[in-house]
Write the structure tokens for this entry.
Amino acid sequence: MGQNVFYAVEENDCLSRQCCGPLRPFNIHILDNFGQEVISITRPLKCMSCFFPCCLQELEVQAPPGNTVGYVIQQWHPLSPKFIVANEHNEPVLKIHGPFCGWSCLPDVDFEIVTMDEVSKIGKISKQWTGLLREAFTDADNFGIQFPMDLDVRMKAVMIGACFLIDFMFFETTN
């Protein structure tokens, strides 16, 4: 309904941002409207190469901080982005499938959230097109996340983490 629910703050140093760009490790703190941290997202440093499956990206989500609720783990695929959403025990719960061409500069780019058997689509993470000027001259992005209302609240927190990982991997520039 257009209300701010959370604020995201990245904890990082200038050297990591300048030297590693979108590949940098990060800690993102999700704060509520009272400034209390409710979710913590941690991404370790890993080089990114689609040709070497040993360089796959991942992140851990804690909610509240100190209590791991899940992980987002990239799966190797030569043509399209794929991720596993796992619970706190690192057991797969959901999958995320990106488009063949995730670097589109036209309409919304959707990453489908599907069940483990890949039969049912239950939601999506969308990078929303904001217009030519904003897309060309800023690094600001808008994302939308859709999931069932009855999805476990811990998995909802992990979906927020997945959104940040997708943004860093596919929509951040290296400059």
